[in-house]
Amino acid sequence: MILNQKGDILLSRQYRDDVSRAAADSFRLQVIAAKETGSQVGPVKRIENCSFLYTRHTNMYFVALTRSNVNPALVFEYLFQKIKILKAYLGEEFDENSMRNNMTLIYELMDETMDFGYPQNCAVDVLRLYINLGAVKAVQEQETSELTSQITGAIDWRREGIKHRRNEVYIDVLESVSLLLSQNGSILRNEVTGQVQMNTKLSGMPECKFGLNDKLVIDRDNYNNGNRKRGVEIDDCTFHRCVRLGKFDADRTITFIPPDGEFELMRYRVTDNINLPFRVLPAIQEHGTTKVSINLKVIANFSDKLFSTSVIIRIPVPRNTSKAKIKVSLGRAKYEPEQQSIVWRIRRFPGKAECHLSSEVDLMPTVRKKVW
User: Fold this and answer.
1) pLDDT in tens, 37-76
2) Edge-to-edge order in the sheet of strand 278-287
């Protein structure tokens, strides 16, 4: 069911008879009215032998109710897919009014994406073939049979007969490095999370193979026991459903028939053999309760033949900061109260270079000894 911020039901659908519509009152009183939603409270609530799993979009709550012992990851994936489908039909920032104006469409989508509590077809491209916003045309018998095979077939993420003037494939690899340092600068935890984004404009039903310089190595125990074949070590990965997992399990090659357009091929995580791009050395001194000195040195660990662009370094400061005098050796830095931090921006950071920041932060007097 979908509720607004007051707890009123915008629309709901019962797929089984074990949960009643009246259960929404319990969710409204014990979760929404009690203000238990937020980052500090988990998105699962158990009320009167009924499990409520919910997520939020703008001012609306998407809630799944069950009395069974279900897999919560499956439920949340369905809720996220439901929001993704509604964004595709109603726009990225759809709200309560757009939901009320498209009740019939949303009920159709609910019936097509779930049956008796089991998720079904959640592919936006396939749903758009037979659920639209009014642009209806007469469907011939041949088209009907093709549509049926498209919906129930093994490849429901791509329709047949796609044609492009030129066959093009665009690939973007986006990686983020998470690092936790101790006070003396030693590394406590570091990991890299990455995702492979693709945009395919290919005709027909092409079979693609995503190649790496080396094969992926996921079974680390086997790898450490002496079977050291050259490969790329990753801790875990998830794939788009177009990837043929059988071939991946057999020889660690990524083979797939891609959807048309933009999609995320895979996500992965690496925790070993990470070459950190920067080394950060902070030094902070407190002068009484009204002043803090911050000195920061950033060293680029990559080759001097390379450079990094659009580097942003955020240095958190106390909430009672009044002003900050800042000096930097490269780039620009200023105190931004809305972020409660000093933001240091460097357009071009050369490899093997060292950059310094020094700042004198003035604090407003407070009743408490230390507000941060």
Assistant:
1) 555 567 888 887 888 889 988 888 899 988 888 888 999 9
2) 278-287, 291-300, 354-363, 321-328
